[in-house]
Design a protein that fits this description.
Elements lengths: L3 E4 L16 E4 L6 E3 L4 E11 L4 E6 L2 H7 L1 E3 L4 E3 L6 E8 L5 E3 L4 E9 L27
Antiparallel strand pairs: 1-4, 2-10, 3-9, 4-8, 5-7, 5-10, 6-8
């Protein structure tokens, strides 16, 4: 699938790290580092503008390495970029650790996954089909 992109960053376009990768790394389009203090959040620009095709969305997800090693994650995970959005892609990062974290220019800060999505048409009904699970939720299926 082809996706139109404008790259106003100082860095190469996102690409897949391995042949079977689902996501591409997004980079911080910064001219100088920014420091995220514990529990602080920041809107980090990428310099990318996307033309997502109708019927698709782009999802901004955390990078597992940043989360596991430094407690840095995407606050509204996954963040959705709608097919009709044409502004700059920015990532809301939050520092959930107890230490400061420096985001450097060009640092890989999140992953971008493009996925098909459907819009629904609601059909109001008086009751739903019975299932084995029923109303069980929040851990009801066991550990």
């Amino acid at each position: 699938m082809k996706v139109k992109v404008i790259n106003r960053s100082a860095f190469a376009l996102p690409s897949y790290a391995t042949p079977l990768s689902a996501g591409m790394d997004l980079k911080a389009n910064l001219t100088e580092p920014i420091v995220l203090e514990p529990l602080q959040r920041a809107l980090v620009p990428t310099g990318l503008f996307l033309g997502i095709p109708e019927g698709y969305e782009a999802q901004v997800r955390p990078r597992s390495g940043l989360a596991a090693k430094h407690g840095i994650t995407v606050l509204n995970s996954p963040g959705t970029i709608d097919a009709d959005y044409r502004g700059e892609v920015k990532v809301i990062l939050v520092n959930l650790s107890s230490e400061s974290f420096e985001i450097k220019p060009g640092e890989r800060i999140a992953q971008l996954v493009v996925a098909r999505c459907e819009q629904v048409a609601w059909e109001e009904v008086p009751e739903l089909d019975e299932t084995r699970r029923g109303e069980g939720g929040f851990g009801s299926t066991g550990k």
